[in-house]
Amino acid sequence: METTQLDLANVIEESLKKSLSYQDYRTLLSRLVEENATTGTNQSEALINYTALNDRRMKRWDKTVKISDEDIDAIKNATVNQTWIVLTESWCGDAAHVIPVINKVAELNTGINLQLVMRDENEQLMDLFLTNGGKSIPKLIQFDNTSKTVLNSYGPRPTEATKLVNDFKKKHGTLTAEFKEDLQRWYNKDKGQNVINDLLELIN
């Protein structure tokens, strides 16, 4: 059954009732680390460990992400009235690299309201923004507050990382542990610049 813009707007409004600001999300992660827990119903040791790792990653990116003066001007001068809803979970490695950069961009323009929602608590919303049929996160939904319509979606990875993943899957069928380590190194080397460029395209 086709989802109309009105249906979509209603699903988004419902999800936003459970949303967190970036700062509240960071506070949640820190608390989960203290409690030796993770978001979602699966409280496995692996996901709890990923949450702790991601908290450290996000702390680092919060301090180190740099946006060029040219990009700062472009972001500040964009005329937008949007809510950016990001589907995430605390254990997601890509989210830990991508969301701090999204936050840095959103902070530069008062017309962007960034809100985070948990994937597993918002299945109806997640199901409308699948990636190749999968519930991949983080997924940013660009919602126009004036027209109450979705303009675009973005994620789960920046464009260059997506190409790396797709090329590797095409050649090898599945992502290996070694490739995942290579991907982490790519994120560390890129320092959020690919995400910044992608988001500039979204808002201009």
Structure, described:
The structure is a single chain. This protein is an alpha+beta fold and 204 residues long. The protein has one domain (5-203): Glutaredoxin (3-Layer(aba) Sandwich), CATH 3.40.30.10. The chain has 9 helices and 4 strands. The protein has helices spanning 5-16, 22-35, 45-64, 69-77, 93-107, 123-127, 159-172, 177-190, 193-203, and strands at 82-88, 112-118, 139-144, 149-154. The protein has a 4-stranded mixed sheet with strand order 2-1-3-4, with helices on both faces. Strand 3 (139-144) and strand 4 (149-154) form a beta hairpin. Helix 5 (93-107) crosses helix 9 and helix 7 runs antiparallel to helix 8 (177-190). The longest helix has 20 residues, at 45-64. It is globular. InterPro entries: Thioredoxin-like_sf. This is Thioredoxin family protein.
Give the gist of this structure:
The chain is an alpha+beta fold and 204 residues long. It has helices at 5-16, 22-35, 45-64, 69-77, 93-107, 123-127, 159-172, 177-190, 193-203; strands at 82-88, 112-118, 139-144, 149-154. Pfam families: Thioredoxin_9.
Give the H and E element order: HHHHEHEHEEHHH
How many strands?
4
Rounded radius of gyration (Å): 17 Å
- Low-pLDDT regions: none
The number of domains: 1
Spatial ordering of strands, largest sheet: 2-1-3-4
Coarse morphology: globular
Q: Which band does the percent of strand residues land in? A: 5-15%
Please outline the major beta sheet: 4 strands, mixed
Through-space gap between termini? 32 Å
